[in-house]
């Protein structure tokens, strides 16, 4: 049996596939994190390792989106994508860690890049 997303013709199969391949593997780790959170000291080396790995994964996803995007974002020049990342982070720091202002600043530069590329 071909157990890929399009491998089974049943109407319910895509929903079961999403449940088994997407939701269940990620939620198991979330539940284990909730169960073990009260038992781990915030200053422990193991929690420091977990934080470092989680931060590295988020940074890798952001770097991939900025440097090797897909879809419409790919048509925006690289200088605007990298500049949007830098401007958003600088705005975040200068605006006393305001996430909203950092996002708005980076989105403004991305929109300028989209306009320059003729997308809007």
What structural category do the secondary elements indicate?
A: mainly alpha
- SSE ordering: HHHH
Q: On the 0-100 scale, what is the average pLDDT?
A: 89
Distance between the termini: 46 Å
The number of strands is 0
Indicate the low-confidence ranges by residue numbers: none
Shape: flat
- Summarize the biggest pleated sheet: none
Sheet-strand content, in percent, reads under 5%
**Alpha-carbon Rg, integer:** 20 Å
Number of contiguous helices: 4
Binned, the helix content reads 55-70%
Keywords: Membrane, Transmembrane, Transmembrane helix
Pfam family, one: AzlD
Protein name: Branched-chain amino acid transport
Topology:
Blueprint (H helix, E strand, L loop, with lengths): L12 H25 L7 H23 L10 H17 L4 H18 L4
Helix pairs in contact: 3-4
What does this structure look like?
The protein is mostly helical and 120 residues long. The protein has a domain of 51 residues. The protein has 4 helices and no strands. The protein is flat and about 50 Å long. 8% of the residues are buried. The mean pLDDT is 89. This is Branched-chain amino acid transport. It comes from Aureimonas frigidaquae. Keywords: Membrane, Transmembrane, Transmembrane helix.
Structure characteristics:
mainly alpha, 69% helix
Task: Briefly characterize the structure.
By secondary structure, the chain is mainly α.
């Amino acid at each position: 049996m071909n157990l890929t997303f399009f491998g089974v013709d049943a109407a319910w199969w895509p929903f079961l596939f999403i449940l088994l391949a997407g939701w269940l593997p990620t939620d198991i780790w979330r539940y284990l994190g909730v169960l073990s959170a009260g038992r781990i000291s915030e200053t422990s080396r193991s929690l420091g390792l977990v934080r470092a790995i989680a931060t590295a994964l988020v940074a890798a996803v952001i770097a991939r989106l900025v440097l090797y995007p897909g879809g419409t974002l790919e048509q925006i020049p690289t200088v605007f994508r990298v500049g949007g990342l830098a401007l958003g982070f600088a705005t975040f720091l200068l605006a006393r860690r305001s996430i909203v202002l950092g996002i708005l600043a980076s989105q403004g530069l991305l929109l300028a890049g989209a306009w320059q590329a003729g997308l809007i």
